[in-house]
Amino acid sequence: MPTVFLNGEFLPHDQARVSVMDRGFLFGDGVYEVIPAYGGHLFRLQPHLQRLDNSLQAVRIPNPYTEPQWQGILEELVGENAGTDQSVYLQVTRGVMERRDHAFPLDLKPTVFAMSNPIPEPDPALAEHGINAITLDDIRWQSCHIKAITLLPNVLLRQQAVEAGAAEAILLRDGEATEGAASNLFIVHDGMLVTPPKGPLLLPGITRDL
Length: 210
Hints:
Distance between the termini: 35 Å
Number of helices: 5
Oligomer: single chain
Structural class: alpha+beta
Radius of gyration: 18 Å
């Protein structure tokens, strides 16, 4: 049974419990990060943790752990779960409040959750034949550089692509491509690899920087 991390504890995933008054549940008030681990080693951990900290600062949630503490937690989580290559998902919400209110108290204790799942083997046919994609209007907010858990626009855009027989939606804003619904965008043009510049309208991908 997979092991997860929740608020300082490692426990079986079916024993993890979060309050219904958590602002992540009520408002999508939180941020997240996804970190691959190859051969049991977390890939580019420091840049991922820096992006997490940037997102937390942007939404005014205090970072609950130092970088060494995060590293220890995530390395232990990877070690507790099966799979040589894993995808680690971590989420920090603003925490639990007594009553639902859009405004938030400044002294809430963040809720911290992390899980790790095996990365599926890639399909060789995808590398040979590629995938289908469609273009859709980018209906997301103006702060896409924040890795927020409020992903409903992305969900609807990706679902629209799937229902059209495509694997991804390439998003357009003011006539320019920004990124995919759940991916960064690269284009080979005249023998050159190009990608949209960083900015508030797209997520600064960690692997993208390579």
